[in-house]
Write a structure and sequence with these properties.
heterotrimer, A alpha+beta, B alpha+beta, C alpha+beta, A: alpha+beta, 5 helices, elongated, B: alpha+beta, OB fold (Dihydrolipoamide Acetyltransferase, E2P), 4-stranded mixed sheet, 33% strand
Chain lengths: 260, 230, 245
């Protein structure tokens, strides 16, 4: 379903931007409040619930024992997928995975994969025969804006608190999955002509293009994505990258605080 | 309308709950007569008035009725009519003949395009829930400026107050023009400070409209109103 | 139901493996209004099962061919999250979830006053986040609370409950092992005020006497869960009323 954008909303967002204000009273680089819970789902080997303002997502980790890909006989695998089912909001419709949900899953997947936080060699059980597959599934339950950052946070938090069910697979005792880094995502949306951090649903509805930045522990970039119609300048990117550096560090600290 | 205002005994009921014996009273909205009892069909507050028992729902979708003043958003435009989202289950239809302009066939879009916001009245609702809108009438027009926001149906009366007293006070305090549509949409226009104050008020209505402390909270933020009238 | 072979489901003293009495249900928690994006919502934890339900509408029924001129259609989607079971489920619809969605929709249509909203649809999205056994029942309970929370008129709530048979004994509310290795499972959707039944399925082997015992257990459990549902709905607003009442 295509959402209707009232002309008054775009007008208002432009007016607010001129006065350096936001529709919900936040500053340009302020985030909404975030609550992160981990280990919250029976049956998932790692799980997280993220409440990001009024946006709510769950992430769950499952493992499987499988035969390795022929070209990488001694490496396990990682997969991250997101579902944007009709539960998440009025605008979501049933049917096969939408391009939006595929984009969401893949952007989160790249950030985690490319950071190298999972050692694929360590997921090998018997070279050429048995390896572990790690699967992160993200489920959006309430979309009130910026699901990307919420999903990325939930995914890495679920992963970092997950336990490999080795006993169930007859490969020894259960052990915590080794994750060497905490990549987190920061998203910016053009609202009223300028970028803001963590747009809410109204800002997304009346806004334009968005940029997603995933940074690792050293502040290195691991995944970038520009979505929706619009262009930006290198100067604009430099400005938001600067904001992302400090914000991602805060998000990583939040995730790390959930581990013993 | 929520029980908090009446000061009388408050009783919150859930669907299926027996409210009382059906003898001597009529089953009003939000209730059903079932056997010897009147039962609630909605989550809400019990109200008894002139021998009719009803339930004031806490949450309800907007169901258009003829005569309602509504704020609509144009969803599509045809050669000779507009379809508008009026926050209800069905789009409203504004025929060219009920628009405030002389429109030539095929030129409807010049006057009002997709996304534009209108103040209209419900002319008629037929049995199949088709909603016909009109913009012929005093004050009915396209809303070209200002901001639009939504509140839930049961909060409309909190925002208005007895005999529109709260609404009048808010208009004065914010120095804004404010229109509260029967469909839960609120339109506000004024200077930046006034609009920002009203945004705060609407947030309070949305989050605290049920609370008994609503009036006190409202009074508190009225003190900071740009118009300075508390 | 699977065969029960050598798996022992009852202790020597006749109590169940998790310590419950045969007519005792698992612990249940209910919360209303948990999803800000939805018109109405509910969260139900039943044993280790977790179900979340969002309700949207009434809204115009699309596509047009599903519209009914005289009433609303209830469009239910029951879905298990990929991480809800011990082996990951591939996302997407399957035959099981389609069947459960269909009979759940019909059960809900039996209590919702659908004739109030001709040509419209009410979307009911049931998401199972953790599955232990009995998820369809938990989904029904969550759906009823979410519908009431959305302000949809109904003549009663519905409670999802199940009883079954393990080692020739009728027990209330099967857990995972009992469901996998027991002899029968009888899930029901019960209207708690009137005692009518709006949802019924069964598989396995039950004598008429055993069926009647199951029915009796289900009725008893429905009343207990109903109290929690009502409390969840009222708690949300009575708290907001600042204890004025």
């Amino acid at each position: 379903m295509v959402e209707l954008v009232p002309s008054l909303l775009r007008q208002e967002l432009a007016k607010l931007a001129e006065a350096d204000q936001r529709i919900d009273g936040r500053g340009r680089w302020d985030s909404r409040d975030i609550t992160l819970e981990t280990d919250c789902l029976y049956n998932a080997e790692g799980s997280a619930k993220v409440t990001w303002g009024d946006t709510i997502i769950y992430a769950g980790v499952k493992f499987e024992v499988r035969t390795p890909w022929p070209d990488r006989p001694a490496q396990g695998s990682l997969m991250c997928g997101a579902e944007l089912r009709p539960v998440a909001g009025r605008k979501y419709e049933p049917g096969p995975p939408s391009p939006q949900s595929i984009e969401l899953g893949r952007v989160v997947d790249r950030g985690i994969r490319e950071s190298g936080c999972i050692d694929m060699d360590a997921l090998c059980i018997i070279p050429g025969e048995k390896v572990l597959g790690v699967m992160i599934d993200i489920h959006v339950l309430s979309d009130k804006g910026n699901i990307f950052d919420a999903c990325a946070l939930g995914a890495i938090a679920a992963l970092r608190t997950s336990t490999v069910p080795a006993e169930r697979f007859d490969i020894g005792e259960d052990y915590p999955l080794a994750v060497s880094m905490t990549p987190t995502m920061c998203s910016f949306t053009r609202v009223g002509g300028r970028y803001v951090l963590d747009a809410n649903d109204e800002e997304e509805l009346g806004g334009d293009e968005r940029i997603h930045i995933t940074l690792g522990d050293e502040g290195h970039l691991h995944s970038l994505q520009k979505g929706l119609k619009g262009t930006f300048t290198p100067a604009e990117f430099a400005e938001i990258l600067d904001v992302a550096q400090s914000r991602c560090a805060e998000l990583a600290a939040l995730v790390n605080s959930k581990e013993e | 309308m929520s029980g908090a205002e009446t000061g009388a005994e408050l009783r919150l009921v859930t669907p299926g709950e027996a409210i009382g014996a059906s003898t001597g009273v009529r089953a009003g909205t939000g209730t059903l007569s079932q056997g010897e009892n009147i039962i609630a069909t909605r989550l809400g507050w019990v109200k008894e008035l002139n021998g009719t028992v009803s339930v004031d729902p806490i949450n309800a979708a907007y169901m258009p009725r003829s005569g309602d003043l509504v704020i609509g958003v144009v969803e599509s435009v045809r050669n000779n009519l507009w379809f508008a989202d009026v926050n209800g289950p069905f789009n409203g239809l504004l025929p060219m003949s009920l628009a405030p302009w002389k429109v030539e066939f095929g030129a409807a879009r010049i006057h009002m395009d997709v996304g534009d916001v209108m103040l209209a009245r419900v002319q008629e609702v037929d049995e199949a829930h088709n909603v016909v809108l009109t913009m012929k009438g005093v004050g009915l027009r396209r809303l070209k400026e200002g901001m639009m926001s939504e509140i839930s149906m049961n909060h409309i009366s909190r925002l208005r107050g007895d005999g529109d007293s709260t609404l009048r006070a808010l208009k004065e305090a914010s120095d804004c023009r404010i229109i509260v549509g029967e469909n839960g949409r609120v339109w506000v226009d004024g200077d930046a400070a006034g609009v920002s104050f009203m945004r705060q008020v609407l947030d309070l209505v949305r989050n605290g409209g049920h609370r008994a402390t609503f009036d006190a909270s409202l009074e508190a933020i009225m003190n900071d109103a740009p118009g300075g009238v508390a | 139901m699977g065969g029960y072979g050598d798996i022992q489901l009852l202790n020597e003293d006749g109590s169940r493996l998790d310590g419950r009495a045969i007519d005792e249900m698992r612990e249940v928690e209910v919360e209303a209004g948990v999803l800000p994006a939805a018109d109405g919502s509910a969260w139900v934890k039943h044993g280790l099962n977790v179900a979340v339900c969002a309700v949207y509408g009434p809204m115009e029924a699309h596509p047009r061919k599903i519209q009914r001129q005289d009433r609303a259609v209830i469009d239910v989607r029951y879905n298990m999250a990929p991480f809800s079971t011990s082996d990951r489920i591939r996302p997407g619809y399957n035959r099981r979830s389609r069947e459960i969605s269909k009979v759940t929709a019909e059960a809900l249509e039996s209590v919702v006053l659908v004739e109030r909203y001709p040509r419209s649809k009410i979307r009911v999205e049931i998401e199972i986040l953790a599955a232990e056994a009995g998820t369809r029942c938990v989904g029904i309970t969550a759906a009823a609370v979410a519908l009431a929370d959305a302000g949809i008129p109904m003549r009663d709530l519905i409670v999802g409950v199940a009883s079954g048979k393990v080692e020739d004994i009728v027990v209330l509310d099967l857990d995972k092992a009992e469901d996998n290795y027991g002899q029968a499972d009888l899930p029901m959707g019960i209207l708690p005020t009137t005692g009518e039944i709006a949802f019924l399925q069964m598989d396995g082997d039950l004598s008429v006497e055993e069926f009647n015992t199951c029915l009796e257990y289900n009725m008893k459990a429905a009343k207990e869960i109903h109290v929690l549902m009502v409390d969840a709905l009222k708690r949300r607003y009575e708290e907001k009323n600042g204890g004025e009442a």
